[in-house]
Amino acid sequence: MSEATVVTLPLGRRPLPSAGQVDLWISDLGSFPLLVEQPPSDSLEQRQSLKFGQRFLLRLLLGSYLGCPGKDIRFEYGATGKPVLVPELASSGLQFNLSHSGDWLAIAVTPGSPVGVDIECRRELPRSSALAHRFLSFPEAQLIDELVEPERSARFLAFWSRREALVKAMGASVVASTASIALEPVDGRPLALPSDWPAISHWTLLEPALPSELIGALALPQPGQTVKTMVLETAPVLPSSGVPIG
What we know:
- Helix content is about 25%, strand content about 25%.
- By secondary structure, it is an alpha+beta fold.
């Protein structure tokens, strides 16, 4: 991965992103042993542990921008379940969105504009062609039909993550919106959006720098936005010198 900055815990007070910028935080929750225990794969306990880690890091990160403890961060939820800050915290102008895939967590933070982010772990999808014809526009599905694996699944995931990011920025329903979205088959820029959304010219749709395991997109109904990617890690454990302390 290029164009990303590594940041280690603990987080200090952080300034809000400047106007026109999105801070995108990427974390491998599997590398946070104190937050995420590792029960058997795909077990209920593992899923609950991952959700705890996601909520903990989200509150910790938002608290660092707002200058308050993570435990004081509280949310409201829209009709589709999109979390937003409660009014007394939202007065800061800070807006955010999160996505997770496998052990990976992405949190997008920006001032003054709704934002949507989606990440997908790279994987082969046995039904990628059928899924493309069901959820994508015909030109996009036709392009995917012409590819072979692993490019076919990767292109489907790229188109899907862009749609997810757009829908999440609007706090809308994927089922109700995806049929009205068409993306340019080569570069993925929006060609058609739901009629009650901001005009296409108002949107920024980006593919941020991500670890090689991930495919993802970030969307805002504001033109000319940029993104800064940061990878949040725990501080490295230094080997013991063998010299007693004290």
